[in-house]
Design a protein that fits this description.
The protein is 45% helix and 13% strand. It is globular, with a radius of gyration of 19 Å. Bound molecules: acetoacetyl-coenzyme A (CAA). Acetoacetyl-coenzyme A (CAA) binds next to helix 2, helix 7 and helix 9.
């Protein structure tokens, strides 16, 4: 897995961040999305983030250009043929991910590793769609990917130890800190983090405090860098709801029921920063 280009499938916020960190580690990346506009937008966003680093004297223009040269855009899955590692970061919906993984199979050799950047969908469920489940693993990045140091590496019952070891080495090589966890709804991160966000939504809907005050309590009282409602807007309210649904159905406990207000906001299309409105309003640059 040391040579060859890394495939990143899905050019949304997560896919663009993953492509950036891989390219910054001087590995070639093929960034694939069916929508050429999304790929183009992702590449522009990466260039803007790197340009800010150059402006702050934290990267040279040469390093920026060599990083950008490591990223190739693509719109077809067959272009991934020959990649030793493909990371999917498509929309967080089991059917969407299963369908993508099925379509990817003709282009995966038996030695290639396929990793899923899922927030909460069981890796074992997703592995039912791949030809070589022993080479399938969860690789859970955090938003904003260029900043957040963790990669949660999720091992399903079929994932081979060698696959996990290779992903741990790769994560270290791209400057991340991997933590290996077993496959369970929400893994560790979202089993802890998203119920806190959900509880903040209950507190808001019960009129206990305003959004601003709930966030201030957690920023100043628990030293969280962002309050839970600001964080929900950053993650995406749809993703938060999917995580709560996965916890609720997967663990079968009422304490994981999604807050009705969260569901209503998602149904209304208030998804947070990506739609410029969630618990807060954002300008167009969100
Ligand atoms: N995309 C890329 N980079 C970003 C960014 C974004 N959306 N927002 C901020 N940054 C970068 C900035 O460019 C800056 O980078 P440099 O240091 O290289 O210049 C750095 O982050 C710090 O930014 P700021 O000084 O502007 O802002 P800040 O100090 O307030 O930090 C933050 C911003 C890093 C987002 C911080 O508030 C934070 O850590 N928040 C918590 C984020 C978090 O918990 N993420 C996990 C969400 S859970 C998840 O992703 C998993 C899931 O499955 C749901």
């Amino acid at each position: 897995m040391n040579g060859g280009f890394v495939g990143v499938i899905g050019a949304g916020i997560m896919g663009s961040g993953i492509a950036q960190v891989v390219a910054q580690a001087q590995r070639s990346v093929l960034l694939v999305d069916r929508s050429p506009e999304l790929v183009e937008r992702a590449i522009v966003a990466i260039r803007e983030r790197l340009a800010r680093r150059v402006a702050q004297d934290r990267m040279t223009s040469q390093e920026m250009e060599s990083t950008m040269a490591n990223i190739r855009p693509a719109t077809r899955l067959d272009e991934l043929k020959g990649s030793p590692l493909m990371v999917e970061a498509v929309y967080e919906d089991p059917q969407v991910k299963l369908q993508l993984l099925r379509e990817l199979q003709p282009f995966c050799s038996k030695d290639a590793i396929v990793a899923s950047n899922t927030s909460a969908i069981p890796i074992s469920l997703l592995s039912s769609a791949v030809a070589y489940p022993q080479r399938f693993v969860g690789m859970h990045f955090f938003n904003p990917v260029p900043v957040m140091k963790l990669v949660e590496v999720i091992k399903s019952i079929s994932t081979r130890d060698e696959t996990v070891e290779e992903i741990v080495s790769f994560s270290l090589a791209i400057g991340k800190t991997p933590v290996v966890v077993s496959d369970s709804p929400g893994f560790v991160s979202n089993r802890l983090l998203v119920p806190m966000i959900n509880e903040a939504v209950f507190a808001l809907s019960e009129g206990i405090a305003s959004s601003e005050d709930i966030d201030t309590v957690m920023k100043l009282g628990a030293n969280n860098p962002m309050g839970p409602l600001e964080l929900a807007d950053l993650i995406g309210l749809d993703t938060c709801l999917h995580v709560m649904e996965a916890l609720h159905s997967g663990l079968g406990e009422d304490k994981y029921r999604p807050a009705p207000m969260l569901r209503r906001m998602v149904e209304s299309g208030l998804l947070g920063r990506k739609t410029n409105q969630g618990f807060y309003e954002y300008g167009n640059s969100g």
